[in-house]
Amino acid sequence: MNTTTSVNGCFVFKPSAKKKKTLSLEDHFSHGCESAESSEKRFKLCQDLWDKIKSDTEVLQDDLNRKILDSLLDFTRKCSSTRQLSDWASQMRASEIPTAALVLGVNVPDHDMTFQSLSELLQQSVTPHVASVQAKECGALKHLMKRVLERLMGTDVTVDDEEEEEAEQTSTPLHKSVHCSLSTLCDWYKTKTKKSNTPGKKRSSPSRDDPQQPPVVIIFKDLEAFNPKVLQDFILICSRYIERLPLMFIFGIATSPSTIQHMLPHSVSSLLCIELFQSLSCTQHLATVIDQLILTHHFPFKLNAKVLQVLMSIFLYHDFSVRNFIKGLQLALLEHFHSQPLSVLCCKKKDALLNVMQLSHSDLERIRNLPSFKRYVEKQEPQEQVNLSKDDTHLKEVCQKLIKGLHKYHKNYYPVLRCLHTLTSSLPRYPLGKQVRELHLICLEKNVWENEDYQTAMKLLRMLAKDELVALLQRCVEILQPVKSKKMKNAFLQLTDLLTKFKQLDIAAEPPPCVEEPIISPVRNLQKKTDLFQLQKTLLEMNESRRAKKLSPFEVLRNEALEFLDNLVKSHLSPPESHTLNEVCYYTSSATVRRHLNATPRTSIQAALNSPYYYLQNDRLKTVDGSVSNSAPDICIAYKLHLECGRLINLYDWLEAYATVVSAAEGNNPDSDNYGKVEEVKHARFIRAVSELEFLGFIKSTKQKTDHVARLTWGGC
């Protein structure tokens, strides 16, 4: 009888032949008995909103960058315009390379869009000769020179090493290439600009001062990442050709303009004529994006407080990238339409009302099971509750009213939110947040008027002077004026009336004299009776008399205005969870968004090694119960075997188990003598798989035993 003599080894478990069912892309938007028409409609709505987010953000980014891009275009035109050579200052600057230091901020993922827009504008209005380079492709001077020439000339450029290799490989080159030097670029530029020169007019050499000769612009997208030595040598070489080639540099800077001083010594930086350009901060970009996409009733898809907080946290504590914030918003949009069958109602009011009448019986049952709808039903009369539970036609009519109410809520919510932010953001220490998004988060979580900071803000507003309060109310009137809503129009008229009263108010008018008798009378009684009880009673009466002092007309009007705004807040800034059918518009799964956006490399690697089919899409790799097919890549087999070992892994036992699995994949006869035998090829494949696992950090060599390795990771993905 065979017995197991050691537990320190690797054991082989052959996978089952059962196959795991997978869903196609079309199936992802269908839920159980949901009709294909409904899932297709949801997919179409999701796609339309996705495209709207993409187009709106691109237009928004162009508008935000318009000012800085126009300044850069003016700078390039000025540098390429005709200079008076008789001017001594112009002669001195003509020997320098014009350089624009563009400070874009640390939101590096957003820089590509800015540089793409800049390149397109330069090519359209200033010069066709624009080249953009990145540090990762310019590790050496020859690589930087090659990339610049290739992108300016539009042809292949070879350096000396590549020419020697090509000469050895073939005597007839497959395509035409040019030598990598600025002399070649000068000759090419002279040929290109020669056609635009006036015939018969002799020119000694191309001049940067000629308006008919456009500048050659080189954009360094990520200046901090460049090798300082490579950058210095390139600038020195370019400075020698400045009389023959109208060069111009644009430095993309993520941190500070002082980076140029740290990277370039004075002997090199003195060759540059640098002008600084500062773009808007990434927080300003984000505030505009949130204002246009989230804080508006025109966009039907909404985020609850937790999801929005996750996206904001990733923005503030990771990369400051507005582009990645938009990706997170698109991810939440996709997840909402995928996981919520009733998201077919997440659209414009007109379309939503039509979709309500087309809901199936299963969709209506989903509505009856919504938590917000259950709370709504509990508040109705008994007969109405029966009708809502049994009558589908009546339920559709009620749902139409509820959808209208939800859209009215959003239409009134955002103007009142901005009015409240206008009032509180002017107060010291910003009790409800400096940005409107901070106030929005508070309103999403609970009733804002129950917040302690809200009470503090209202007390501070009651201490404002007339001019300050009138200015704030005027801004609120401007916010409410364009809103097309009956309630907001009434609020606009009432605020306008209050402003008129403030302007007509004469604060200088003296109030009528206060009645002093209630104060004097207790004092006279105090002279007659001196016991402690009577003294306490008299002092309380005096305190109450001071509180009863008549308010001035301004104070009365100020209290009236603030009371009106307080009622406006309580009427329209209730949290969305308190409104029926909010689930069709609001996405609430913050954990899903965090899991997708906060990358966990180890989990992803383990998932790939455990389930290679989902990455390689090879039917031979389909398995069940977490097992790995014997046809899987070598690293997957080695990884799965190492999971069955302890802290130390015997390499020989590991190798034998690996050879057994591979032999099964090759279709060898298990009864043959060569089955599971370690051959040179299998040995080499195993060594490579072990080396890859060591590189990924799953194992390491150990000094305890020379023929063992130590396992470093524990627990599944």
TrEMBL record:
Its main location: nucleus. It is found in: Nucleus. GO terms for molecular function: DNA replication origin binding. Residues 193-205 have a biased composition (Basic residues). Residues 156-175, 193-213 are annotated as: Disordered. Component of ORC, a complex composed of at least 6 subunits: ORC1, ORC2, ORC3, ORC4, ORC5 and ORC6. ORC is regulated in a cell-cycle dependent manner. It is sequentially assembled at the exit from anaphase of mitosis and disassembled as cells enter S phase. Belongs to the ORC3 family. This is Origin recognition complex subunit 3. It comes from Sparus aurata.
